[in-house]
Amino acid sequence: MRAAILLALAGFCPAALAAQDTTAKKDSARKLLPVLVSTERTATPPALVRETLPVSASVTAEKAKATVNLVDTEDAVKYLPSVFLRKRNNGDTQATMATRTWGVSSSARSLVFADGVPLTALIANNNTIGGPRWGLISPVEIARIDMMYGPFSAAYAGNSMGAVMEITTRLPERREVAVTQTQALQTFGLYGTDRRFGTSQTSASAGDRFGKFAFWVSGNYQDSHSQPLAYVTSATFPAGTSGGFAETNKLGAAANVVGATGLLHTRMTNARAKLAYDLTPSLRAAYTLGYWKNDADAGVDPYLTKSGTVTYAGLSGFASGNYDLLQKHSAHSLSLRSDTHRNWDMEAVASRYAFDTDRQRLPLSATASDTFSTAGRIAVLDGTQWANLDLKVTWHRGGDGAAHRVSMGAHGDAYQLRNPTFNTPNWHVDHSETTVATEGDGRTRTAALWLQDAWRVAPSLKMTVGGRYEHWRAFDGFNQNGSTSVTQPERSMSRFSPKAVIEWGSRVSAWRAALSVGKAYRFATPSELYQLVTTGSTFTSPDPNLKPDNVLSAELRVGRQIGLSDVQLALFQDDVHDAIISQFLPLVPNSPTLYSYVSNVDHVRSRGAELTVTWRDLFVRGLDVSGSATYLDARTLALSGRASATAPADAAVGKMLPNIPARRATFLATYRATNRLGLSLAGRYNSKIYTTLDNTDVHPNTYQGFSEWAVADTRATYRVADKWLAAFGVDNLFNRKYFLFHPFPQRTFVADLTFAY
User: How many structural domains are present in the chain?
Assistant: First the structure.
């Protein structure tokens, strides 16, 4: 059986990962055998999570520490099946999560929580301000992470159409103090940039319990330098210059690389305090305060020279990649939660997140005299904020053995986007704004009620049925571009989403199975409705009349234990009407001119299979191996718009959906060599990704393309003494050079030393 599974996984990825040519941009990395994080359950999620989240995959803190070069919190889920985190650099504030059916530009199509508090930023559905607020959780706090794939629980909004991630944190039972120093060094060489980029992070935490009262405080400071995040390209080399690199873009057109931009230097501070009081042995109240600051600046690296002197050649791309950024955000949450194992349990969680200060300053142009203009722009997000309230109750008469486990709840949220961009006579000076260049403001609110019953029909059969009613409203929408302004119409709608899950599993059988079906509606975020965005010369318009994503999801999951191994196969399908995706349509009805903007694509469908395998003590005691392989067929079935301004009407029909790979895999092997020494080898693989609706990306391994990639990571941990733990690892061991729009990190060495008692 083991041999058959290994052969099946090997067939998914053509060959084992091998060393690559690190001098060329297009290397020949071979694919890696797939991988699954083992599902240890050494910590227990809260009662309402256990009642409402049908878990598909999990990882514990112990597993993450042993196997992951853990710099940021999001690193902990690096090897979960069908999950990819778009982390471009250490301290990335835009680390969105891709799931098995939706890509990294769909941040609002999944939900991330920490102890019931949303980390997901449903202010947007993109890979900029839509990234989850991972910085609110320090890695040392994590107890375990659980995942549900698909909208199969009534307790979660339609944004769960991709996945739900629940992070369970811990509180100390005695005095705990820990200090970790982490150093990372990336060696990067691509086009004309050949440098080393370092990260230094100091983390500290302390906690204690005094009877009914417990507290936890943590903080870290990270100073990080990133590789270039963007490049300046030109169809022709500027007259009178030398240097640069001949290149084509993802569509095969000339896009010569003349310089690197977005070389980001971040100085990030994160602080968090959690206070908890046990009102009774089974009822706990907790308050959490979070503060996050990011002081950053980005520089440029021109490759062009003129008369022997480095030059910007008057190209505006150098100006947009050179900026200063200051962000100060705060978060509060208050919770009341019980875990009685008796007839009733409840949970109440209220939270608020605020962009207290968020300002980016940049010049307007690069001048012919090879300086940046004094005039510029200041993009402001001050005042952007959101708040959430969840009230949940579960009834299970007779305690843990109840035949009916009825859960119900109410939800409310309010999101406010404030995003003016101002002209300024001097971009170096903050608060020097004059007139408005563009502005996109607006609010959304959602109120929901839900109910579900988990009925133990027989000892080996459980059926869960439920539904969620949601009322959504968008209002106060305002847009301005130069002297033109418009007040957007107020909109509201209501939807009902039924859910059903049937689970079979017997103590006397190694087999188990679950069939899940769920309807979900994902309402548009404020940024999709109202935010005006300019990227280079591309102006993106919002759409205040968006209909919600309308998805019907189904999954059949079958698993079997075979000795110390476990095999699980999931077959899944998402059928989506009115999918919110960028396409080309007239901004004004009946206009012959088409523009690209987010709008409703009539009908798309994703179907696929996911295989996960784990082995414990494989061949030798202490060797654990896990893997996962996912195949996806995601296609456009009907759309009213066009794939591009010049594409034929039906060019996208039948083509692969953009931003989602057809194949992905993970692999993880850990070996506990001694009580002190642990070793791990891991890898991740993604096939190439189309970014156009009609799949015209003929050259994916270039800037703004999404290439195929396979990387291997290693880690070794050593218990130096009872209170000291040292670790050393390498990410991207074979130095794979690949693009996911941005050039992604190359070989990176990571070392950390922890003192804890």
Answer: 1
